[in-house]
């Protein structure tokens, strides 16, 4: 049986990458948590997405919003652009998550994470301007092709 590549496009297989986090192991880094949250969106793991929200961000309405997003969105790939650890157990991760739309859509965000009792949580994020992929760069979907030959058509 072939193992499934992790949806976060880390280059690792899902059982060695995001699955242990989805099964309850705490992430060692904010970037790891962000990648596992992206994978949870792809795989429809709503409980994980809610459990990894900072406690002050949790509201019942999130479940319905998450379900709607998961149902309506076909995620194509993830690019982590920057990750930094701040003072006071906070970190930021800038990323672009690509999704199927006409034309192709993207979520470009700088997310803030906080560490509480040795566990990372998603705090909030700031939406950033869309970025334009370079035609000759590797495609964000992990196909191994250049963007222009894959999703850049």
Using brief descriptors, characterize the structure shown.
single chain; 27% strand; four-stranded antiparallel β-sheet; globular; alpha+beta; 153 residues; Nuclear Transport Factor 2, Chain: A; 4 strands
**In which range does the helix fraction lie?**
10-25%
Shape, principal axes of CA atoms: globular
End-to-end separation: 33 Å
**Mind summarizing the main beta sheet?**
4 strands, antiparallel
Radius of gyration: 15 Å
Number of strands: 4
The domain count comes to 1
Strand content: 25-35%
Query: Helices and strands: which structural class?
Result: alpha+beta
Residue runs with pLDDT of under 50 for 5 or more positions: none
Specify the CATH class. Answer: Alpha Beta
Number of helices: 4
**CATH architectural designation:** Roll
């Amino acid at each position: 049986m072939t193992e499934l590549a992790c949806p976060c496009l880390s280059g690792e297989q899902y059982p060695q990458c995001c699955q242990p986090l989805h099964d309850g192991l705490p992430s060692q880094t904010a970037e790891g948590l962000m990648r596992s949250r992206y994978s949870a969106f792809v795989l429809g793991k709503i409980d994980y997405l809610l459990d990894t929200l900072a406690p002050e961000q949790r509201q019942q309405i999130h479940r319905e919003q998450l379900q709607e997003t998961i149902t309506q969105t076909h995620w194509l790939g993830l690019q982590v652009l920057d990750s930094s650890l701040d003072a006071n157990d906070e970190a930021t991760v800038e990323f672009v998550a690509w999704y199927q739309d006409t034309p192709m859509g993207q979520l470009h965000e700088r997310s803030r994470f906080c560490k509480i009792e040795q566990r990372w949580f998603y705090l909030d994020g700031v939406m950033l301007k869309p970025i334009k992929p370079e035609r000759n760069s590797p495609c964000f979907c992990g196909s191994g092709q250049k963007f222009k030959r894959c999703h850049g058509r």
